[in-house]
């Protein structure tokens, strides 16, 4: 681990194997460390020696970032350097963490963008708003219902398999949803008031169980009965027989495809929506309905309650808007102004 590049490579291996970080996280850390190396080399004519990088070197790097990066990006890159040097210290390469003594820029805490209940329903229902029974429309309706009904991240939704729908422990009749491809003669009626979803490979590699209500389950059953069989028999392309949500080639749907479908639905609904907006809406609407933060934390899969507490601010913002619009004294004050 004598030079920067080999140290960065060992750090990437540590993240992937020992920390079980996602490939995207490993790649992001690698880009940040490479940016520091390249900037240092431009200024000095040589790659940095991991054991000799000083606080002044890190400050110079951060100062240069302010010209083209926002506060969040700078903080992330500084965090990558801090993690890298914690790794080096654990390996006995250095006792100093030069990035630790450089303050992170203050980030503006933007509130999550949540849709109101009517807008969320309009986006979710948009794919089949005209009673469309095309397989892609049925899939998108079911997928949006699942994302909004269970508060899933887009990556978690795309990773769902057929056997992740558990109907036995929450009001249903089957553990595994009927797959018309492997069991064409099976029961297609569904049943029960809801089910449980086994969310695997969530953020940080954590698994969790979340309930899914009867409205989302009804849309899912319609897709499984009438939409998925037509997607699961492609003329070409790679197939993923276990995947819950399929593309038109029979393969697993990607996050980018889901983003495009939600953007299209948002236009139809006349709303601004993203996959994460449905997740934010799920949490905000639960809080407005009286759910406690601890329960919402578990449903969202947040490691820390502080990540969930932001929704109290979103909910209060909503309450203030309702107050301003509905209370007679609030209205009269505005009219006088």
Question: How does this structure look, described?
Answer:
- 54% of the residues lie in helices and 4% in strands.
- The chain is globular, with a radius of gyration of 24 Å.
- It has helices spanning 4-18, 23-44, 55-65, 71-90, 117-125, 135-150, 154-158, 214-231, 255-269, 275-288, 293-300, 305-308, 310-326, 328-336; strands at residues 165-166, 194-199, 208-213.
- It has two domains: 4-101, Orthogonal Bundle (DNA polymerase, domain 1), CATH 1.10.150.130; 117-274, hpI Integrase, Chain A (Orthogonal Bundle), CATH 1.10.443.
- The protein has a three-stranded antiparallel β-sheet with strand order 1-2-3.
- α1 packs antiparallel against α2.
- The chain is mostly helical.
How is the topology of this model organized?
Elements: H1 4-18, H2 23-44, H3 55-65, H4 71-90, H5 117-125, H6 135-150, H7 154-158, E1 165-166, E2 194-199, E3 208-213, H8 214-231, H9 255-269, H10 275-288, H11 293-300, H12 305-308, H13 310-326, H14 328-336
Helix pairs in contact: 1-2, 5-6, 5-9, 6-8, 6-10, 10-13
């Amino acid at each position: 681990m004598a030079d920067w590049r080999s140290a960065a490579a060992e750090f990437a291996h540590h993240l992937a194997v020992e920390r079980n970080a996602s490939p995207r996280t490993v790649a992001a850390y690698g880009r940040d460390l490479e940016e520091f190396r390249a900037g240092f080399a431009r200024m000095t004519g040589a790659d940095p020696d991991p054991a000799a990088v000083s606080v002044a070197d890190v400050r110079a790097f951060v100062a240069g970032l302010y010209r083209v990066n926002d506060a969040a990006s700078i903080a992330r890159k500084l965090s990558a350097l801090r993690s890298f040097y914690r790794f080096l210290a654990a390996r006995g390469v250095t006792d100093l963490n030069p990035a630790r003594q450089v303050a992170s820029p203050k980030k503006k805490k933007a509130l999550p963008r949540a849709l109101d209940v009517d807008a969320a329903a309009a986006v979710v229902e948009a794919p089949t708003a005209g009673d469309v029974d095309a397989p892609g429309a049925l899939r998108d309706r079911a997928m949006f219902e699942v994302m909004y009904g269970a508060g899933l991240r887009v990556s978690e939704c795309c990773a769902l398999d057929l056997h992740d729908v558990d109907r036995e422990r929450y009001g249903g009749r089957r553990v595994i949803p009927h797959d018309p491809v492997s069991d064409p003669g099976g029961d297609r009626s569904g049943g029960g008031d809801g089910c449980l979803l086994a969310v695997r490979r969530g953020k940080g590699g954590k698994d969790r169980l979340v309930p899914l209500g009867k409205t989302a389950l009804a849309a899912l059953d319609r897709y499984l009965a009438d939409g998925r069989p037509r997607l699961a028999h492609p003329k070409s392309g790679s197939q993923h027989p276990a995947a819950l949500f399929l593309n038109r080639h029979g393969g697993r749907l990607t996050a980018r495809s889901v983003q495009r479908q939600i953007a299209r639905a948002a236009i139809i609904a006349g709303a601004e929506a993203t996959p994460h907006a449905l997740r934010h809406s799920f949490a905000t609407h639960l809080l407005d309905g009286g759910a406690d933060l601890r329960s919402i934390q578990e449903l969202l899969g947040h490691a820390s309650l502080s990540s969930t507490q932001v929704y109290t601010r979103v909910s209060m913002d909503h309450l203030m808007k309702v107050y301003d619009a509905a209370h007679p004294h609030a209205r009269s004050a505005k009219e006088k102004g």
